[in-house]
Amino acid sequence: MSGTxxxxxxxxxxxxxxxxxxxxxxxxxxxxxxxxxxxxxxxWYWNRYPGARCDVESMQYSFQFSDELQQQWNWSERYAPQPxxxxxxxxxxxxxxxxxxxxxxxxxxxxxxxxxxxxxxxxTAGGATLSARFCVMATGCLSAxxxxxxxxxxxFRGAVYHTGEWPHxxxxxxxxRVGVIGTGSSAIQSIPIMARQAAQLFVFQRTPNYTVPxxxxxxxxxxxxxxxxxxxxxxxxxxxxxGGIDLSFNDRSALSATPEERRREYExxxxxxxxxxxxxxxxxxFVQEANDTAADFVRGKIREIVxxxxxxxxxxxxxxxxxxRLCVDTGYWETFNRPNVTLVDVSDRPIEAITATGxxxxxxxxxxxxxxxxxxxxxxxxxxxxxxxxxxxxxxLKDKWREGPKSYLGLAMAGFPNLFTITGPGSPxxxxxxxxxxxxxVDWIADCxxxxxxxxxxRVEPSREAEEAWVAHARDVAGISLRATCSSWYVxxxxxxxxxxxxxxxxxxxxxxxxxxxxxxxxxxGFTVA
Length: 530
Known about the structure:
The protein is of the alpha/beta class. The protein folds into 2 domains: 5-144 and 378-529, 3-Layer(bba) Sandwich (FAD/NAD(P)-binding domain), CATH 3.50.50.60; 145-209 and 324-376, FAD/NAD(P)-binding domain, CATH 3.50.50.60. Helices cover 32% and strands 16% of the residues. It has helices spanning 15-26, 43-46, 67-72, 82-95, 185-197, 221-229, 231-239, 259-272, 288-305, 309-315, 332-335, 382-385, 397-400, 434-455, 464-480, 509-521, and strands at 5-11, 31-34, 102-103, 108-114, 119-124, 129-137, 159-162, 177-181, 200-205, 211-213, 327-329, 341-345, 353-354, 358-361, 364-367, 370-373, 388-390, 419-421, 460-462, 527-529. Strands 1, 2, 3, 4, 5, 6, 17 and 18 form an 8-stranded mixed beta sheet that branches. The longest helix is centred in the C-terminal third of the chain and has 22 residues, at 434-455. The radius of gyration is 23 Å and the shape is globular.
């Protein structure tokens, strides 16, 4: 690391941190990225579990700031697997010569605002101290693994893994007895693959999840060529949709359709695969009775696919479809027809203990050679709160957020001058295609820093009034949707003691972008600059 004083320090070298660095360098700012891992890629660097794959189609889950990059990079599959996305991240780092301004194997432990100097003092686990006028947290929404504490875990004599911290060399489960704890997205992606390797696979399920088929396959070269011929049009369509993804939406109410019409629409969406399923009707996320029709359809599919009626019943979710992030799978339900796969329902009685030889659940001991925790993340706030961030008068961010995250637009917090968060709580983030959301945030932050430089200003932060108003607005909008009706990681329900607050902004990508543009047009309305 050459030098310790910068215009901007960026924490994290995922897609957000890389693009932030690229923008700042192009503007003449001195910037340094600090990254805990030994490579770029963020979530795609850490999450190397079997079957890890993006649930947004490859042609859309990519940068659009460089048309040359868009045109020259070729994806191999409809939904890109983790190794290919990581290769893409490394290609971006090499293409734009980013590594020379990234310090790897460096975990940030604290960031404190020096009020006298109007600078951030950043400290690392290795003992380094850096100073920056601005600090940008590109720490990701799903980057702090949730590791549950279960009695006896330390006594287990076998191997223990977490899907969010998978060994880079991979794991061979051939001939092993494997227990998977959790049935969220990473479990749904990895279970079919682990089942083909393991001698026995036990899936410990507390809450069943909805999932729809991906129907993944090689990307049609003709389709890829057609998209590249008019990429701008696809991007514009995507940005006009709430999720920032180009999907076909049917505005019609599910309740106005006949049962036969609904069935045809759901079957067509099921055959198409992916998130398009939730675009079948316009009221699925707003009217319980409409949502029930989609949920009933998926439960019917489970009963069709899973041969054992008792297992099919246990695998069938009873909550709102879409209130948790909808999973996209390849052969998940079919896996439970395999003779070497056993579903262990722990919804009524939680896992009792982990023993030296396995897992004790429902009064029975399951002997295991390996345990896989597919228990997700401390989402949205976890990565930020694992850093000791202190603003004006030494206020700790963990204290400010004790009752839930407070942020203006998910970009900045009152009392924490010159600190920005990319896709922070209060922004659309995880409810959208992350790449366009990242680019929008990075561009907004870069333009803000350019404005401050032109005006000869050194300090910017939201007012408490603007922050409170945005938090209230985000809460009110969330209350309109059925998304806020179940215990999901969107509300922090997977983390004991975490405040139950719907963290992402549910108002949609277009409305959010319009608000950000309005703030700028009104002279950075809601911000105090000096």
